[in-house]
Amino acid sequence: MDVFQTMRFFVAVAQSGSFTAAAELLDTTTTNVSKAVSSLEARLQTRLINRTTRRLALTEAGARYLQRCEKILEEVREAEEEAGTAQVMPVGRLKIHAMGAVGNHYVIKAIARYREIYPLVMFDLTLNNRLPDLLEEGYDISIVLARDLPDSGFVAQRLGITYSILCASPAYLKKRGIPDSTRSLGEHDCLRIVNTVMPVENWVFEGPEGVETVNVPLSPFHVNTADAMTVAITNGMGIGIQPIASAVDGLRAGTLVRVLPEYHFEEFNLFAIYPSRKFVDAKIKTWVEFLKDYIPGLLASDEEIVGSARKDNSVRAR
Fold this sequence. Notes:
With 318 residues, the protein is an alpha/beta fold. It folds into 3 domains: 3-84, Arc Repressor Mutant, subunit A (Orthogonal Bundle), CATH 1.10.10; 92-161 and 269-302, 3-Layer(aba) Sandwich (D-Maltodextrin-Binding Protein, domain 2); 163-267 and 303-317, D-Maltodextrin-Binding Protein, domain 2 (3-Layer(aba) Sandwich). 46% of the residues lie in helices and 23% in strands. It has helices spanning 3-16, 19-26, 30-44, 60-85, 100-117, 134-137, 170-176, 226-234, 244-253, 282-317, and strands at residues 49-51, 56-58, 92-98, 121-127, 141-146, 155-162, 164-168, 190-193, 202-207, 210-215, 222-223, 239-243, 257-259, 264-265, 268-274. The model is unreliable at 314-318 (pLDDT under 50). Residues 62-89 form a coiled coil. Residues 1-59 form the HTH lysR-type domain.
């Protein structure tokens, strides 16, 4: 019998005043209770209860041990109750990973709305453009862009589809002209994002005639995040790739212009990944369900803005 069980038996005897009463409380036999207490005393090498045919009395050591056992068992009960509650009540801290542009433009907005519903959930958010090791790095959920996911045994919920476009500033296009085909990109300063998601050496477009690969000329500027690329493009450094999430604010404000609006880059799936389907913590379950409801609306709204940029990009460039 394990130590916690023998503690429970001892506490039941001490509180009820008899082995028989303790057995009834614990739904077991008097013999089992007696054996448990004897086993505990043998392990401790200390008499805890003085027994007579008519009554029981705690020894001094037994009284001290009872106080400790009651405290320990109460903490165990509270811990079990808290762990069980985690399956039904969203509470505690979520450690989240997200890729940069997705995190800045979608995930933080989602966190703000989610916490209006579940204010007892707190977030630690890390942004970087890679697929993390959830177990090794201790993340509860990772939100990533990927064509497909490796077979990891994790649960993956698809939140939607997005893609990247080409953008430039009105000032750059006024100075250098507007490209009228993918071939004419060779006459421009093409800025490159260098990370695990975006293409580097060649730009692969999907356009009116299907997939088209363009060898990009020597770039005057490399950077590793889409939001940093937004700053470079806005400051007139050249034409660069922008995920929809990074482009929409500039397109709406007129500080960015969509270039070659009939073309876009390969579509990527947006996934929420977490370790297990079984005994999922309530905060993880409700967070993923919230993302599945909330993120598609943001993606659709941004898609409308990018679509409208096809019509007025030439006007903004003037």
